[in-house]
Design goal:
Length: 476
């Protein structure tokens, strides 16, 4: 059987099989690598004064892990710069926060070349290479330039932006051209896939074939939607674990008979946390009878603290929640509990289970697995209600949630009010439909469908004469 080589910016060392402390994506990748006797390759997270290209390999809980160090300039230009100051905000439609600096792009290209140099000696004939996310878009081009003819697939874990936005990116043509060195491109939704196809068709004169492949730059690639999921059975078990049950019991006691609204997010401008709090403020102002009957627990954890756009977000969030609390609080009731502490998956499962309404309202999100985890954690007899942004990738699958426009305070406030008043029978019906989808489109289905599509596409491509590699051309 072919080995699977997974490449990601960072390697999350596999926990023991079945360990509940590991995230869903890491668990799926670890399981796939055990099944295919594969290798997980990426940056170690460590810096070195001078880049050496030295490879560190170890066996961790049944998975071979291979890592490399980056020098400080690499980290600043490739990771903090192009990945998180340029691509991340642009792909999340925040062109106002996007920074275009030539040194960032140079660092991005340099590090992808270094990844390829270090990875090539590990690749054996017949291996399947699966590259993860926006940090490594050009990697297949670099591998092909070094003679790699193996099946190579790419999965984008964030949205692909509308072509009007991607056109603002210097050298956007070269970035898209590099993606045509993959056999399969994976996106969470048809919307993100179609946005990619729109660029190819309208900006570079590409052609879409009847079988779904697209042709441009003298090459062909298969873009396809593969909605990512969770491991629902594992997550269900977390809510009844010792720590999950303790977390649930503590939350129920602290609710004191009130209804709990819940937001769980990484602290990121794409998550719409400020907009959510303002919608909650509107709800309380327009419905004073709800005061003392509800509260919002907002859990926000730090992310990308090296990037300037994130450094003042905690202060802004604390100030906004403080203002809302000051306007509405009473001596024995605070409308918002604002928490920045990290929680284990077991703790989160108990918190999800105790929440009457989950507010998953990002302004733009590739998928958002919090929505699926919340559904999996609910009690079948008395489930809570999911309020979900239409701009999260999950909305394409989870149509029985209350779908909202997160930019409209009134829309979100109205949905919360509806969720709080929803009859038990309707809550059960909506939850059952949502849970069926979570169980059907789980993390294993995502993994297996992508690997199968990659094998098929590569096999079909190998049966045809490979076209000459065309230069991308132009600055774009």
């Amino acid at each position: 059987m072919s080995r699977l080589i997974v490449v990601s910016n960072r390697v999350n060392p596999p926990a023991p099989e079945g360990a509940s402390s590991q995230g869903g994506l890491a668990m799926a990748i670890s399981a796939a690598l055990r099944e295919y006797s594969g290798v997980w390759f990426g940056w170690s997270g460590n810096s070195t004064p001078t880049y050496t290209g030295q490879l560190s390999m170890q066996r961790v809980n049944g998975v071979t892990v291979a890592t490399m160090d980056l020098e400080e300039q690499d980290i600043e230009e490739y990771y903090n710069g192009y990945a998180n100051r340029t691509l991340w905000p642009l792909f999340h439609y925040r062109i106002d926060l996007t920074q275009y600096e030539r040194s960032y792009g140079e660092g991005y290209e340099r590090v992808n070349a270094r990844f390829a140099d270090t990875l090539v000696p590990l690749i054996e004939p017949g291996d399947i290479v699966w590259v993860q996310d926006y940090h490594l878009i050009p990697l297949a081009r670099e591998l092909r330039a070094r003679g790699v003819k193996n099946a190579i697939g790419f999965f984008l874990h964030i949205p692909w932006p509308a072509r009007e936005l991607i056109l603002t990116l210097p050298r956007h043509r070269q970035l898209v051209e590099s993606m045509f060195h993959y056999d399969v491109l994976g996106f969470h939704t048809e919307e993100w896939k179609n946005a990619f196809n729109s660029y190819v068709l309208h900006e570079v004169g590409g052609m879409q074939l009847s079988d779904g492949r697209v042709r441009a730059f003298g090459r062909m690639v298969r873009p396809q939607a593969f909605p990512i999921g969770i491991d629902p059975a594992a997550f269900v078990s977390l809510k009844t674990s010792a720590l999950g049950q303790e977390s649930y019991d503590r939350m129920v006691e602290s609710k004191a008979g009130r209804k709990m609204l819940l937001g769980v997010d990484r602290l990121d401008y794409s998550k719409g946390i400020d907009e959510r709090l303002l919608a909650y403020d509107r709800l309380l102002a327009d419905n004073p009878d709800l005061k003392r009957k509800i509260f919002l627990l907002q859990i926000s954890t730090a992310t990308r603290s090296e990037v300037e756009a994130y450094q003042d977000m905690f202060a802004k969030l604390d100030a906004l929640s403080g203002r809302i609390n000051g306007a509405h609080a009473e001596m024995d009731w605070i409308p918002i509990r604002n928490v920045h502490r990290m929680h284990s998956r077991e703790e989160l499962a108990g918190i999800y289970r105790a929440a009457d309404v989950a507010l998953v309202t990002p302004l733009r999100d590739g998928m958002n697995l919090v929505a699926k985890e919340y559904v999996a954690a609910q009690d079948e007899d008395d489930p809570g209600v999911l309020v979900l942004s239409r701009f999260a990738g999950a909305a394409a699958q989870m149509k029985d949630a209350l779908i909202v426009n997160p930019f409209s305070q009134e829309d979100v406030a109205d949905a919360i009010k509806k969720a709080l008043a929803m009859p038990l029978e309707e809550r059960r019906k909506r939850w059952r439909a949502l849970m069926d989808g979570v169980e059907r489109d789980d993390i294993v289905a995502w993994r297996d469908k992508f690997v199968a599509a990659l094998r098929e596409a590569h096999k079909a491509g190998a049966a045809r004469p490979r076209p000459r590699i065309a230069a991308g051309g132009g600055e774009g």
